[in-house]
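Could you join me in thinking about how sequence relates to backbone shape in a protein? Would you write everything just below, so we can both look at the same thing?
***
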Amino acid sequence: MKPVRLLMFSGSARRGSWNQRLVEVAAKKASELGAEVDVINLADFDIPLYNQDLEAEAFPPAVRDLRERMIAADGILLACPEYNGSITPLLKNVIDWTSRPQENVAEGLVAYQGQVAALMAASPGGLGGMRGLVHVRAILSGIGVTVIPEDLAVGSAYQAFDEDGGLAEEQLSQRLENVVKGLMRTAKALRQKDS
């Protein structure tokens, strides 16, 4: 059987982002568990602030590329920084652009409807970005994504990672593994249902 394909990225473009580090840890775990993983950094995508006038002029190539990678994935893992108790402008902008219709795409939500996602967050605060995950879950659920119940919020992120880039606490590592396994299990089940 073909390995499950996972796309992973964070809602932060900051150099040294804790959420991007969390993505890297999750990607390593998913690869160890047999998944095919596509890790991206949104800093590498030239995506302008969404504007319908701009959309009418020309659809950004970076949005096309990102949407194609989302469609090719059996599941998506997002690490979501929390800005003022909510979603980052970067992540919301990406969702807004990739949910828009374009030529040769019959339905704007094709990258989302029937998709499965897992959510994680890392934050210097004690709640670990948990408040923002509630908003991301609501947005994704509202556009047809099945968001698995397992999630992970890593508080005190400045001390959560070890020197090798992994999570310093075994309990957090186990919870991250549970999120990855939950995403893989659900993605496989939905893929078999559709085939």
Observations:
- The chain has one domain: 5-194.
- The chain has a mean pLDDT of 93.
